[in-house]
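To fix ideas, we close by showing one paired sequence and structure record:
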Amino acid sequence: MLKDLKAFLFKRNVIDLAVAVIFGAAFKSIIDSLVADLITPLLLTPALKAAGADKISELSWNGVTYGNFLSAVINFLIIGTILFFIVKAAEKAFPKKVEEPAPSGPTQEELLTEIRDLLKK
């Protein structure tokens, strides 16, 4: 059982997945900082001042605080956009190799002709 666990944990795709999850968590903190420290102050300051809030998380309407949700939506859109461009760049940098199809075998007619010729002998 321990051998099975070791074999599972050290498969290449499991290790790749673990690295991707850790990288994703680190990437999320960078995007959170980008939104909170750059985008919100630069782009949303006029809207926040008009709404009477200092931070996007303080936005509310009739007791419903929608600022955190709005911040999460902005984070999601930015992460999605950046990942889209990263994937497109990776696809361009490392194009998939197109495998040539295996040579097809003889057609049915060729096989039947060969069988006929063998039967004649």
Remarks:
- Helices lie at 2-9, 12-43, 45-51, 67-93, 108-120.
- The domain at 1-93 is CATH 1.10.1200 (Non-ribosomal Peptide Synthetase Peptidyl Carrier Protein; Chain A).
